[in-house]
Design goal:
about 280 residues; alpha+beta; Phosphorylase Kinase, domain 1; Transferase(Phosphotransferase), domain 1; 2 domains; five-stranded antiparallel sheet; two-stranded antiparallel ribbon; 9 strands; about 35% helix; serine/threonine-protein kinase; nucleotide-binding; Ser/Thr_kinase_AS; kinase; ATP binding
């Protein structure tokens, strides 16, 4: 482990473990404050240069995005030949997944969380950052029950040489956009698709594209046939369905941007709607 890290922070208990590393709670005597520390073991990385690029870019991207009320703030980064350690603000262990896994949310509650998440995503996009793995597991809850977008290990910055698109199959089955799976170049709207899927799950309790295998899920995502089954959408307003159609839209040119989604009437009305709920 990096000596500069252990000289500045006391590593405490393990909070979680991922594919490439471990997250610890840590304490800074100089700042008299607790933080989270993500320690990435470079020996676990594949030989794929893209993996190593993402590793090197994560602290840079987090620094570019900080501060934002709904993005995890970075406090420090320590690089060594064997590891990369990122010290960031400490949130609760709860994630948005813990919230949506146990119940569906009211439209007002879903709007509250979706607005915070879209605010974070819109901030990323204004700075030409594409997260590429927006999912409930990567959205933390803080002590005030507000959302914090985290884990920028798959993120990419489009600022270099005025690039408008990215490439590479990155993401998680239920939440990945179809253009990613088709191997096409894609832009920041892949994140809007993912937030749309999360909103769909929040109000219905089920994902829009379900399968018994990864292959079956991918096939349904690529087909992009969005439905609102009565069993799960009875009583859900036409307004939120309209927003979902515009976020989970297979045609990238017609798909909303994060800013457009934030300006949708359902969002502006805090999830309250003047239209009748769909009872059929």
């Amino acid at each position: 482990m990096c000596e500069a890290l252990t000289n500045s922070y006391h590593l405490l208990e393990e909070l979680g473990r991922g594919r490439f590393g471990t997250i610890y709670r840590c304490f800074s005597p100089a700042k008299s404050a607790f933080f989270a520390c993500k320690v990435i073991d470079k020996s676990l990385l594949s030989d794929d240069p893209a993996d190593r690029d993402c590793l090197e870019n994560e602290p840079k991207i987090m620094s570019l995005l900080s501060p934002h009320p709904h993005i995890v703030d970075i406090a420090d980064a320590f690089d060594s030949p064997d590891s990369l350690s990122i010290v960031m603000e400490l949130c609760d262990r709860r994630t948005l997944f813990d919230l949506v896994a146990h119940r569906t949310l009211s439209e007002a509650e879903a709007c509250h969380y979706a607005k915070q998440l879209l605010s974070a995503v819109a901030h990323c996009h204004r700075l030409r950052v594409v997260h590429r793995d927006v999912k409930p597991d990567n959205v933390l809850l803080d002590s005030r029950n507000d959302l914090k977008l985290a884990d920028f290990g798959s993120a990419i910055w489009l600022g270099e040489e005025g690039r408008a698109t990215a490439e590479g199959v990155v993401g998680t089955p239920y939440y990945v956009a179809p253009e990613v799976l088709l191997g096409r170049e894609y832009n920041e709207k892949v994140d809007v698709w993912s937030v749309g899927v999360i909103l769909y799950i929040m109000v219905s309790g089920v994902p829009p594209f379900y399968g018994d295998s990864v292959e079956e899920i991918f096939e349904k995502v690529v087909r992009g046939n969005l439905r609102f089954p009565t069993k799960h959408f009875r009583g859900v307003s036409a307004d939120v369905k309209d927003l979902l159609r515009k976020m989970i839209c297979r045609d990238v040119h017609r798909r909303f941007s994060a800013e457009q989604a934030l300006r949708h009437p359902w969002m502006l009305n805090e999830g309250e709607t003047n239209s009748l709920a769909d009872l059929t």
